Amino acid sequence: MNCHFCARRTFNIFARPLTGVRPSFGVRQLHDKPFQPRRPSDPFPGAGPSHRTRDATTRSPKAVATTTFDETTAEWTEGRATRPAWQAEKEAMKIKLNGEAWNPRKKLSPDTMEGIRHLHQTQPEKFTTPVLAEHFKVSVEAIRRILKSKWRPSDEEHDERMRRWDKRGERIWSNLVEMGIKPPKKWRQMGVGRAENSSKPVWKSRPRNQIIVRDSAPESFLPEEDIIPTVDASGNRKTETIIPLADRL
């Protein structure tokens, strides 16, 4: 070993604490940050520690509100937040309609809808949404939309609406008259079910509320015995005796 090298090394060891001078060669600059062990999955070993929280790195912003972390199992579990019943029903109705417009089969008249709003406004504890839906035979969603609506028609819109409603009722009762059902007095005065050429109306030509039902069996078909047998007071079936016409004369 070179003696010059040994002397220089010895001088550096003993002279550095006294002078406080650090040599500018062969010394690695240390960082002020604490030592961070390298993670196996870290693709950039020289990068500093991330300032993001664990939630932000493992969950998306959308999943933060719907997932919770279980400390016992150390896993993220999905859970739905508590929602009111009307929000769940509204979401289910949107899925059921499949993006189509709201068009219920049974429609209430404007006067009926005003009555529904009045009943719910005067006695909300008694006339709740399920009670009104059960009474008027419509869905809960229909009652909710009626109560939620704040639109009120003008006089011209109200008259046009009533004309369309009367036309709809006239069309419905005209179909019912063809089935033999007598229309109410209001629709009879409007000409629904009126016969022409002095003939009898359709709903008077046969017993009221009776619809002709044609049997598939031919008229020549005669059953061997009565479909509904008759019994006497004792509960025994009556025996029918057939008497020839010559004997009866």
TrEMBL record:
<protein>
    <recommendedName>
        <fullName>Required for respiratory growth protein 9, mitochondrial</fullName>
    </recommendedName>
</protein>
<feature type="compositionally biased region" description="Basic and acidic residues">
    <location>
        <begin position="31"/>
        <end position="41"/>
    </location>
</feature>
<comment type="function">
    <text>Required for respiratory activity and maintenance and expression of the mitochondrial genome.</text>
</comment>
<comment type="similarity">
    <text>Belongs to the RRG9 family.</text>
</comment>
<dbReference type="InterPro" id="IPR010487">
    <property type="entry name" value="NGRN/Rrg9"/>
</dbReference>
<dbReference type="GO" id="GO:0005739">
    <property type="term" value="C:mitochondrion"/>
</dbReference>
<dbReference type="Pfam" id="PF06413">
    <property type="entry name" value="Neugrin"/>
</dbReference>
<keyword id="KW-0809">Transit peptide</keyword>
<dbReference type="GO" id="GO:0005634">
    <property type="term" value="C:nucleus"/>
</dbReference>
<feature type="region of interest" description="Disordered">
    <location>
        <begin position="31"/>
        <end position="65"/>
    </location>
</feature>
